[in-house]
Amino acid sequence: MTDSLKPEKQLKQWQASASFELIKLRADTLRTIRSFFDKNGLLEVDTPILSSASVPDPFIESFQTRYIPLTQTMQTEDYYLHTSPEFPMKRLLASGSGSIYQVSKVFRQGESGRKHNPEFTLLEWYRDGWDHHQLMHEVCQLLTLILSPDIELAEPQFLSYEDAFQTVLGINPHTVDKADLLACAEKAGLANVLDDNEHRDRFLELLFSHTIEPSLGKKRGKNKGKNRGESNELPCICLLYHYPASQASLAKTAVQNGQLIAERFEVFIDGMELGNGFHELNDAKEQKARFEADNQARKKMGHNEIPMDDNFLEAVGHLPECAGVAIGIERLLMIMSQSQHINDVIAFPFDRA
What we know:
Oligomer: single chain
Largest sheet: 9 strands, mixed
Number of strands: 14
Order of helices and strands: HEEEEHEEHEHHHEEEEEEHHEH
Distance between the termini: 26 Å
Structural class: alpha+beta
Radius of gyration: 21 Å
CATH class: Alpha Beta
CATH topology: BirA Bifunctional Protein, domain 2
Strand content: 15-25%
């Protein structure tokens, strides 16, 4: 699909940056998503965008605003625009909702560029009674349904985080020591990007983003075009799973091949990350400890601490066995339309809002 309706001349500031072809593609894609979940028995829900608490992740910064009451019966309070609908959706799950999904606008500070807009759209869904392996297969089903009319896909790829590092860098990310990580960074031309005292996870993330991620979701396959049978590189849906336990975030951990891993996965197509999924942690004490550690990390980095969401933390202890995932709609549209910039798939991006 090409962005054929986009004007050739320079757009005026008041005009939409996305063509109406791509605006229609967004509408068609959301219609397909809703139809898929309706057929599979998931309930569409709606949760607050504004909250008195937010995620304390040291690498995600929330938009903050202030509620000013019109009467003196309530105090002025600080609130946050959510970075994901995850917390209230899990409160619904803990209340007995069963499997649910939501299409929601979300907001993150400082995220503006070719693949980022401070306001973007997330598709988030949770499967009651499932683990992350079952959910990965459903992610493949949905993305194949959405993408196959527009692009030719190779077979999906399921790849462990460890295998990805072993294949590209020849190291085991779960056991590699700091000295070897520094040597890998230097060999990859990434010396001095990070301070040597940074946590080993920061070096893993640096190496991953520069040497591994660009190749994920690319696979040799058979071209179905004019030269039928010719081998070439085709995009594919890549599910990368079992991250280090230190990168678990809101996922359960488990022992796999003698290593403690996070039951977490990410989705990639053609070198672009589309989503993040978890076998959801339902231990409230452990979740609180992780949030406290995140706030300590924020303090060390000079960021403000974030109030913990007590309603969410209480709900975590009542959360059923479940798995959840969030997919970025704009990035999905970029893949479908072969757009090089996120502004091409947003009617009025940040610089035109």
